Amino acid sequence: MTTNSYMTHLECSKCGTVHDADTLQQLCRECAAPLLVRYDLQAAAAHLKKEDLLTRPASLWRYKELLPVREEQNIVSFGEGMTPIYTAPRSGAQAGVPNLYIKDEGILPTGTFKARGAAVGVSKALEVGVKTLGMPTNGNAGGAWALYAARAGIQSYIVMPENAPTITRNETAISGADLFLVNGVISDAGKIVGKAVAENGWYDASTLKEPYRIEGKKTMGYEIAEQFNWDVPDVILYPTGGGVGLIAIYKALLELQEMGWIGDKMPRLVSVQASGCAPIVKAWQEGKKESEFWPDSETIAFGVNVPKALGDFLVLEAVYSTNGCAIAIDDADTLRAQQTLANLDGAFICPEGASLYAAVEQLKRQGWLKAEEKVLMLNTGAGLKYPNTVQINPPLLQPGDDLLQ
Amino acid sequence: MTTNSYMTHLECSKCGTVHDADTLQQLCRECAAPLLVRYDLQAAAAHLKKEDLLTRPASLWRYKELLPVREEQNIVSFGEGMTPIYTAPRSGAQAGVPNLYIKDEGILPTGTFKARGAAVGVSKALEVGVKTLGMPTNGNAGGAWALYAARAGIQSYIVMPENAPTITRNETAISGADLFLVNGVISDAGKIVGKAVAENGWYDASTLKEPYRIEGKKTMGYEIAEQFNWDVPDVILYPTGGGVGLIAIYKALLELQEMGWIGDKMPRLVSVQASGCAPIVKAWQEGKKESEFWPDSETIAFGVNVPKALGDFLVLEAVYSTNGCAIAIDDADTLRAQQTLANLDGAFICPEGASLYAAVEQLKRQGWLKAEEKVLMLNTGAGLKYPNTVQINPPLLQPGDDLLQ
């Protein structure tokens, strides 16, 4: 059965060259930049109504007409998507931003937003006939892609830094993927994968080297608009490693504007990085359109340890176009923020997500955020995938002991 | 704003004594058995239509009229519920049960089904004025209750076995709860909590010692019916520790029958335990109505390491009444099942949930399950909370190495 996808073609994000959308594609064959999926949004808007969505299942596939998969039978899914948005009233009040919201991507299969990219990316890979894929990862994407690939019957080769969160090794390995560690950072993993992909003719599932992962992540933007009743918050903060999440939300909101489903208002998009790996922030501060490789990068927010993102120019474009900003957060502030959110509002989120709260505090102090604004933090994953960020030493009792001595 | 709850009273599960539903209650004051929440289901069915649910948010609060919280403002929520049901086609085919489904409770805040009980339990605790609660736990319930309690502004004292999954310590501690470990099993933790609760006048949030946790878990049953389009599968398997999940699903289905929302067909309910802690299975094999304390219990499926459940008689009643059964699974079979589900269908679920697949294999071999039956496995949590169940040793590369030598 058809999904009624309105996808028309792929378009190079740099040179605009058009590519076929239903055959295996990687980067632009002209200029090696990422390809973006384009749709006939006028036709989509003419046939699909917002109200049609109301009775659909609460997964990202509710937007199937605006996704690249053509046939329902190729959808590889665990029912992912429509993650909740909840308030953080006490943390918000403490930071002086009472209308503070968290969209919680920890509540997804594999516990991070990476499930979205994997769901759509693997589904389309299956549709165009991929049998084997390779990818470098900081852990979470690898776990997600490996499990979705297993469900699709696609073999995967995953390379991650040795000090990526160990739980992500489990997810990857138990799927039957071939897992390798590298004594280095994600760019080292990327080089190893690049070579293997070229030599073996595999599909390269690296960030933005295939065009469909971003389409999965785009659904975060659709959901935000739908969950805010086809309005948008004033500000959206996003932790930025490879940057696809932020690029994708921006793409989604532009698409919804073109469809007339939301108005002209665009949230200011904030790219949050770690002080130990902040190439986008540095480029933004210098008013540049691209970032430079960040040497010796290091942070406990491991997902954002990306020294040079292929899509850096798209992240910066989204930030500049929306009058957003970019800000770097020290690991100590991130850990404190993680504790504050759990203590005050019961939200145990990952360090990448928690860094956003430290950014909210700083941007409010600087006057960049106003007290009355609606501010949405996009938490990318569950706190429980990062056991090492919580240091505790609870008392040990013996059977029959009293609780309070 | 009112929730329009149709709750009328609490009823003792053993002696039938009626208790007030809007004041702080623990066990039956007559016979110390668990209390069950009762509703005016005729009135609910007269005013609420199945179709009303279609456009409600995808959380367990969509069933608010059938839950015990009276006022919307007391709802303590992270948007939990409406977890996906997906198929496990390859694992199902391999076991000879092609219509095999997983309802995945890993896709909830805190990564397990315990979030449901905590959401409704903490909300109602807030509504009846609780300031401090105490509870023993095998880990996951403690993490969930601690975080929901933090969100509600309720102080909590949590006691868990020293060898409970370490990630659950993080969740509990980061919430600001007072966490204690005990060199023993959950019944040892329960004795310590019982004493502290009595001495300090705290709310006892132990399994079935407060009446509302079961109401949260009941929503699994409502969701199953709604997701199967107001039909039910032929068989539901549930990993059984304290047993509340299974009791609650049975309660939900009986309520839906009384409302006329589902027909007479009741799924056969299967209680799955670990061979190292199988008191319910032993009682069922002996045709008894209650279980005996299981000494020296031990299993890697830590959540079901409950030597004697307070609600054992209710679990057994649900199994007997539905022509279900009870079965114990060896840890080795559970680990193999966990691997199979991830390998064949990409589902990385917790050992408690994985044990259900080993049960499906055995029950099919015994002829108890038929090939054409719709079989639902209720996975209680995410695999990633149990890093120790996956043993791997991936190769370590150096930057510049070749992937395949």
From TrEMBL, chains A, B:
UniProt organism field: Tumebacillus avium
Gene3D superfamilies named among the record's database cross-references: 3.40.50.1100
Record keywords, A-Z: Lyase, Pyridoxal phosphate
CDD domains the UniProt entry points to: Thr-synth_1
A molecular function GO annotation: threonine deaminase activity
Protein known as: Threonine synthase
The protein's required cofactors: pyridoxal 5'-phosphate
Source organism, top-level taxon: Bacteria
Domain Tryptophan synthase beta chain-like PALP residue range list: 76-381
InterPro entries: Ser/Thr_Dehydratase, TrpB-like_PALP, TrpB-like_PALP_sf
GO biological process annotation, one example: L-serine catabolic process
